[in-house]
Amino acid sequence: MTLPEAVAAEPQTAVSTAELRVSVAWTLACGTRPTYFATSHVVDDLHLVWATANGQPNLEFLSYATSALEKLIGGGEAAQAGRNSSARLRTLIDSLPFPIIFVDASSTEVFVNEPASLLLDIPASAPEEKEVAKGLAKLMAETSPEVRNSQLNTQAGAAVVFELDSNGRRYCVESHWVSEPHLTGRLWLFRDVTDEHHAARMKNELVSTVSHELRTPLTSIVGALGLMQSGATGQLPAKAERLVGVARRNSERLIQIINDLLDIDKLTAGKLDFNFENSDLARIVALAAEQNEAYAEKFDVRIRVEIPEAPVLASVDEGRIFQTMANLLSNSAKFSPAGSEVIVRLEARADFARISVIDQGRGLSEEFKDRLFTRFSQDRQHTVSEQSGTGLGLAITKGIVDAHGGRIYLDRSVNIGATFHVELPLRR
To answer: What positions does the domain Histidine kinase occupy (predicted)?
Structure first.
C-alpha cells in the first residue's frame, strides 16, 4: 500500500492525516480512515508502518518493534553473520515480550515465542506448521469472513490487520509477508490493546450516558424559560427578564455542547445517521449563510455569498451539510474583526464541488494547524472568552465530510485570516 508522501518524508514521527489524501486500501486495512501514520525504516526497502484511528502511534513501541524486526530479518553485522542459524532466530524471537510467530517458507520451520505459544495453546518448542495454523484458525473463528479466509501459513499475500479477543484480552494482530534474500515467510505480531479499548469504552459510555440524561431536562428548562420571556406567564420586571434571557442562552449553549458530544460519540462508533439525497448545494449554502447572519451581526460581521446561478447537484445529507456550513460560518464570524466580512463561495469543478469559507481574522497558530480536526482542540492564542465552544465542531465537521466521500482542509497558502475548503463529489 502506498504511503502519503508527507508520512514517508518524516520517519519516526506521528503524522496527522487531517489534510492528507489517504488511499482506500488503508481505510480497508484499518476498518476506518486512519487519523495518524508513523513509519520506521527496517532494512533495505522494508518499512514498518503504524496506522491508527485511535489516538497517536506509540513511537517508543514502534522503535522497539523496528529494532526487533531488523535483527529478525538480518540487519546489522552480528545478525548478518548468523543469518542462516535457526537457533539464532529462535533466540531473538523468544526475547521479545509480545507474542510473535514466524513461519519460514523455505525450510517450513516455525518459530513461536512463549507469549505466542500461550496465546495459541501450542507447544513453544519446535511446533509444527499445522499446529500454528490450527491455533490461529481457532483464534480467528469469531472474526470477519475476510480474515478467516486469509492465509494462515507460509503462502504469500497482502498484509492482514485485525483485532480479536482471547481469554478476556483484546489483541491487535498484524500478519505480514516477509520476502528478503535470506529470509522468506510470514510474520505474525500480536499487540495487547485491552487496556486501551477498556479506557475508550468507559469514556464513551460515560459521555453518552451523561449527555442523554442531561439533554431531556435541559430541553424542558429552555422551553420554560422561553415561555417566561414571551410573557406567557405574566410580565417580568426588567431585571428578571434580563436574567431569564441569560439563563436561556446558557441553557441553549449547554444543549449544543451535549449535541456535539452525542454526535462525536456516534461518529466514533460509526452510528451517525445520514440521509443522502440529490440536492442543490447552492441552495444549502445560501440558506446556511442566511440563517447565520444574525449570529454574525453580534460581532459586526457581514456574510457575503458567492454562488453560481446554475444548480450544483450532489448526493448529500442536507441537514449534515447545513450543520457543516453553520459551524464554519459561526467560527469565522466569531474570530473576525468588527466591520469585516466572511465570504462563503461555491464553485463547481470537473468532478467535485468546492465550498470555501474565507475570513479576515487573525488566523490560526502554527501549533493549532497540526491538530485542527482533533477532538477537544482549541487554539491557545485565543482568549478564554473566545474559546466558548467545545472544541468538537471541526472534528464533527470533518467526520461529516468524510462520510460524504469528500475532504475538508485549511488553505495554508493564505496568510490573512483563515480559509477552509470543503470538497464534495458531484452527482454523476
So the answer is: 209-428
